[in-house]
Design a protein that fits this description.
By secondary structure, the protein is mostly helical. It is built from 13 helices and no strands. Belongs to the peptidase M1 family.
Length: 230
């Protein structure tokens, strides 16, 4: 109804606040998705920072309850929920989450304590969103060293979270490099397009500038339509 302009978005946000004690992963996944769409729409307005504060307020209590480490008797959905919540808080700039993500990422890179598979994406997203050129270089190094394609894909999907314009360009150039399989290039460009307001503009320009190469690469396949959609 809010998307159709029938009710105010404020009413939706009030309903979302009521879910603060919700334990169910499916519900949080839906809340996260809708807040993500709202955040994207508001990225072109003065309300963007305020919606990040709202995200932190709504997701903080469940984040504190879940913590960073698995608890005895937890199920698969609890692990998924932890990854979802920590990623949301980290991307929004929640101070404690950002600090812990940086600490765990440092230990992961140094080989002292490897991140579990379900925590890698949220940690990578958090440190990239608030990272610099050294952070991006470290991520690209991890990509090169990764033995499993699953880990390479995991990194490729989140590289676009980086914020600085010159680093966004570096990620886009990387997307068309030999380091990335042709079928995975779209994921990298899509990650940039969904990462930030600057990323959307840069990705659109990049696709137009490299249209011939991209079109020749994918011809009329589903990947070219997916690229246009993102």
């Amino acid at each position: 109804q809010a998307r159709a302009g029938i009710i105010s978005t404020v009413e939706v946000l009030k309903v979302m606040e009521a879910f603060v004690n919700e334990p169910n992963y499916t519900v949080w996944s839906d809340l996260s998705c809708n807040l993500g769409i709202l955040s994207t729409l508001l990225s072109h307005t003065d309300f963007y920072e305020e919606i990040q504060v709202f995200v932190k307020d709504v997701f903080s209590p469940i984040g504190e309850r879940l913590g960073w480490d698995p608890k005895p008797g937890e199920g698969h959905l609890d692990a998924l929920l932890r990854g979802l919540v920590l990623g949301k808080l980290g991307k929004a700039g929640h101070k404690a989450t950002l600090e812990e993500a940086r600490r765990r990422f440092k230990e992961h890179v140094e080989g002292k304590h490897l991140l579990s598979a379900d925590l890698r994406s949220p940690v990578y997203v958090t440190i990239l969103k608030h990272g610099d050129s050294a952070t991006l270089d470290t991520m690209l190094k991890l990509h090169k060293q990764a033995d499993m394609q699953e880990e390479k894909n995991r990194i490729e999907r989140v590289l676009g979270t980086i914020s600085q314009p010159e680093l966004i360009q570096k990620v886009l150039t990387f997307a068309l490099s030999e380091e990335v399989r042709p079928q995975d290039t779209v994921s990298v460009i899509g990650g940039v397009a969904g990462g930030s307001k600057q990323g959307r503009k840069a990705a659109w320009k990049f696709v137009r500038d490299n249209w011939e190469e991209l079109y020749n690469r994918y011809q009329g396949g589903f990947l070219i339509s997916r690229l246009i959609k993102v």
